[in-house]
Specification:
Elements (H helix, E strand, L loop, with lengths): L3 E2 L5 H9 L8 H8 L4 E4 L4 E3 L7 E7 L1 E7 L5 E8 L3 E2 L3 H4 L6 E4 L3 E7 H10 L1 H26 L3 H12 L8 E4 L4 H7 L4 H11 L5 E3 L2 E4 L2 H10 L9
Antiparallel strand pairs: 1-2, 2-9, 3-8, 4-7, 4-9, 5-6, 5-8, 10-12, 11-12
Helix pairs in contact: 4-5, 6-8, 6-9
């Protein structure tokens, strides 16, 4: 299956681009200057965008779909560094680092991406100091997020990580019930959380003790406050029966 170009960026695409921290301080005209003549492309699941060590000549913006970024250990096992969906940029740090890609990126679903050539981007940066400052600001925010996420993950058990992941998908409310759909397959979620599939399954089974129901990709959380308490403390509190 070959990838193919879409038509030019539409209004929804532009909204997605404007929400990127990378472009948050730019006008629509400046965003269009950054992407230049790049057109959206559709890629099939399983497509490798680039591999660790490849020459970095472009970065990607996800307009729709899912991309996993990973490294391989010397023993050959796969370590998921992140799973990114619509509205995220992939390998944008390569604009500053140059040289080679520090990881491998593979599509975890059929996706629609915008490929921005780094040489073109460099030319725009040289002409636009405002854009350079926006890039540095976005890079600083990303680093801060990654550091805090790493510290958070190190302090949690596997089961707490799963609870935290589910909470991140729930509506922004303190209590009450929530119905959510898992954003991608359970095996990929487990890898993203640094867990083996069997450990992930055990964690889901333990969460059922709080009344959480999981059917395929659908999750029902009867009381978000209990789930949040468990994610923070590791203590299971069962729902009070009416």
């Amino acid at each position: 299956m070959m990838n193919h170009h879409d038509s030019a960026l539409n209004d929804q695409d532009m909204q997605t681009l404007r929400k990127l921290s990378l472009f948050a301080d730019l006008s629509e005209e400046e965003v269009r200057e950054v992407v230049g003549s790049a057109l959206p492309r559709r890629y099939p699941r399983g497509k490798v965008l680039f591999q660790h060590g490849d020459r970095a000549d472009a970065f990607y913006i996800i307009l729709d779909g899912l991309v996993k970024v990973m490294r391989h250990t010397p023993e050959g096992s796969e370590v998921i560094l992140g799973v990114f969906g619509k509205g995220n940029a992939i390998a944008e740090a390569s604009v500053f680092l140059g040289g080679k890609y520090p990881a491998t990126a593979e599509l975890a679903a059929d996706s629609r991406l915008l490929r921005v050539e780094i040489p073109h981007f460099h030319k725009v940066l040289l002409r636009n100091a405002h854009l350079s400052l926006s890039m540095l600001k976005a890079a600083y925010q990303r680093i801060g997020y990654l550091v805090s996420e790493l510290e958070h993950l190190k302090s949690q058990t596997g089961c707490q990580r799963v609870a935290d992941f589910i909470l991140g998908l729930c509506p922004k409310q303190d209590a009450g019930e929530a119905h959510i759909d898992l954003p991608y397959e359970k095996g990929l979620i487990a890898a993203r959380l640094g867990m083996k599939p069997e450990s992930f399954s055990r964690a889901l089974k333990r969460l059922r003790q709080m009344g959480i129901e999981i059917h395929r990709d659908h999750v029902h959380v009867p009381d978000m406050s209990l789930l949040r308490h468990f994610a923070e403390t590791g203590e299971i509190c069962r729902m009070k029966m009416e």
